[in-house]
Amino acid sequence: MNAIVGLCHFCEAHGPRPLFCTFTTDSDKNTTESSRASVQCSGCTSLGPETVFVSREDDGTIYCSRESVPNADVTSFLRQAAIRSITCEVNWNKEGGVVYFNDAHGHVLSLTFQLKDTWARGLKRWFSIVVLMKDKMLLLNITPLLSEHMQKIAKELQELAEVVFDAEQKVCSQRALRLKTGRNDFVQSRSLMHLTGDDNVFKRLHSHFTWMLKAGAHTYSETLYTSQDLLKKLQPHAVKKSIFEPGTCSVSSDKSCIALRLLEKTVSKAVFRILMYCTLTGVYIVIKSSNVDAATIINGLARLLPINLPNNPRIRQYRVDEQLPPTVCLLEETENNNFSYKWSGALPAKCPTLMTRIENSMNNEKFNDDVLHQHLKSLQLEWLGIAKAVKAAIDSSGSKSDAVAKLKQVFGIGQHDESLVSYWMTVFCS
Amino acid sequence: MSYQDDPSCYVGSFPKDFSYGPFEQNGDGDNTSLQEDHKPRILLMGLRRSGKSSIQKVVFHKMSPNETLFLESTNKIVKDDINNSSFVQFQIWDFPGQIDFFDATFDSDTIFGGCGALVFVIDAQDDYQDALDKLQLTVTKAYRVNSNIKFEVFIHKVDGLNDDYKMESQRDIHHRATEDLAEAGLEHVHLSFHLTSIYDHSIFEAFSKVVQKLIPQLPTLENLLNILISNSGIEKAFLFDVVSKIYIATDSSPVDMQSYELCCDMIDVVIDISCIYGMVDETEVNTFNSQSSSLIKLNNGTVLYLREVNKFLALVCILREENFQKQGVIDYNFLCFRDAITQVFELRNKCQNAITSRGTSGTPEPIPNGAADSTESASDRSQTHLP
């Protein structure tokens, strides 16, 4: 588990300070480098700058315990955690655990507890165990596990300290002594080894903290899913014909695929708007051209649709001598490379939102063609998502239902978008 | 589904002004405003082990001074609400001496922004050079955040020192601290110095002076006390906050330590007696009530007279025995005084923020008005009140 487990205390002279920490690493450098001794104080030192406890796993993971962390950023994070866990965060009980989050530095789980100490002012000293982690969700998930173990560690230390405390009180009662002398002189904080009467207390802590790191790693292993992987796993049919299909987001850069702005220039703006409207709302288009290759126009118009249907029946080339119903939009090349159209329909007063946005982005001179096409792709995918959602809502609660109306309102689908959405629902969302 | 359409429906957020208003004043004059903004803050700062927590515990929590030897080191900012009476309302923040609160990770605006007074405690029994350095740092930085803070320096733990050394160290600390400030370009910042110890009454006296500076009504109260004593033949009168034994006002004659101690002891006696014998039933906690009064005659011809003003305030007077012949007049004058105090409370409740000494012009004057010889006029009046 990628975390740092630390032990902090409240020093009579220096305030809250970290004094011991365990972390995982995979480089031997951390195990040999000496810690920087921050202050000369018996309470604030644990192993000393030169001692490092190391446990090795077979897979190369190294659990390493030392007085301070080599990395300066982490050192300040650990110091902050010491200050915050002991002097700022408040648990419901006097002693107890707290989880707090800090997106800038990292997230911390802390447990504060007291150890009895005859020499301390209140006959007690404050300590805290902190777990520092960058991964918020992982920390939250293993908090129950870790805090249980942290409590056990605290209890173990408290029991050891209690024995020492009782023995020392028997020799000389601090209460009587202080009342008699009327003073309580300053003495340096004693080290944890003195407090617990156990020379191996830091070895114990090393094994406890290592266990915590290991248990954390065993309890939750993290697999990185992209949203696509996850969706495929959870609901394979939902991925079909959606942005999660491979290649959906790629824009064809074929030579045969005419750029939209060029197409607009070729056919003139007015004609292009008609073509665009017909393409987006599924009106049949037939192209009759002499000089320009009809296929390039067909491919160019196909850019406007989110999914490239092979041999889209609604946009096709003119076959010789065929009779077309007036509802079909016929694009015809006249002389001088001019184009005209024949269509019984007309553009509505208010075009579909998507069409307006496409026009806006085409007019945006800051977009070059590549950016424009990529941008259009994202707009199309957005509306494809909308169409899918509406379709799912209609399937589950009927097209007239209140829920569908509300959903449409939320998506901002107006009357002018209806034709587009219903076309997309039938063609792209099956 | 429907709540989204209903704009008047608050989910998870209350309207901004949704909070408790100040309580209505009850008969005892005990009103507690929950709006923290009105509560001035007193910060206790200083090096570790200088005695900050001990001061707070002894003055406001009745801890015996010996017990402070067993206080734990303060690891958090301890916030203590003092809500005893309408006048004495503040918060005490006791800081751990080990932590530098000017560090960028602490929000110094929040700490010093609403602060009324900063008490800096210096251990006089220790080498105080470090403390003076810290004092200069604290004052300059706190002043930068909030220039309205009153700075008070407690030269503390002077009980172990002889008088010469006490004076010498006060002079020395005063001299060096003001010099340090002048060096930092803050010669206009005023520091007040107090010699204090938790083993005698000096800490209560010093804290009284700190608190008095935070009471905007102080001139009014002083004025009322002046009128009272001049008309009743009283030598010295203190208006006490009973729970903490700090006096929130006294008349304008100088305070001598002995009479203050005498009055403190008297309050202790009254409280103890009423706690032991005044309990009506088990559930009643506060035995000090509107009926409480006490009279102690000393064998040097002095009389101590205590009357309660409201649940938390008591008036303690020192007067010559011969001036106490006409107790009725004094009692009557006291009632006028109490009425006046009540009016000050009411006015303060009406306009929490700005109240000046002029605000009480409507209060009734105690009876003899402008009489040259107060004792005489008091006895004149007594004819009408005493049978």
Automatic annotation (TrEMBL), chain A:
Residues 42-430 form the UDENN FLCN/SMCR8-type domain. Transmembrane segments: none annotated. Pfam families: Folliculin. One of its GO terms (molecular function) is GTPase activator activity. It comes from the Eukaryota. GO terms for cellular component: cytosol. GO terms for biological process: negative regulation of transcription by RNA polymerase II; positive regulation of TORC1 signaling. PANTHER family: FOLLICULIN, FOLLICULIN FAMILY MEMBER. This is Folliculin.
TrEMBL record, chain B:
It comes from Spodoptera exigua. This is Ras-related GTP-binding protein C. It catalyses: GTP + H2O = GDP + phosphate + H(+). The keyword Hydrolase applies. InterPro entries: Gtr1_RagA (IPR006762), P-loop_NTPase (IPR027417), RagC/D (IPR039400). Its main location: cytoplasm. One of its GO terms (cellular component) is lysosomal membrane. Residues 378-387 have a biased composition (Basic and acidic residues). It is found in: Cytoplasm; Lysosome membrane; Nucleus. CDD domains: RagC_like (cd11385). GO terms for molecular function: enzyme binding; GDP binding; GTP binding; GTPase activity; molecular adaptor activity; protein dimerization activity. The lineage of its organism: Eukaryota, Metazoa, Ecdysozoa, Arthropoda, Hexapoda. Keywords: Cytoplasm, GTP-binding, Hydrolase, Lysosome, Membrane, Nucleotide-binding, Nucleus.
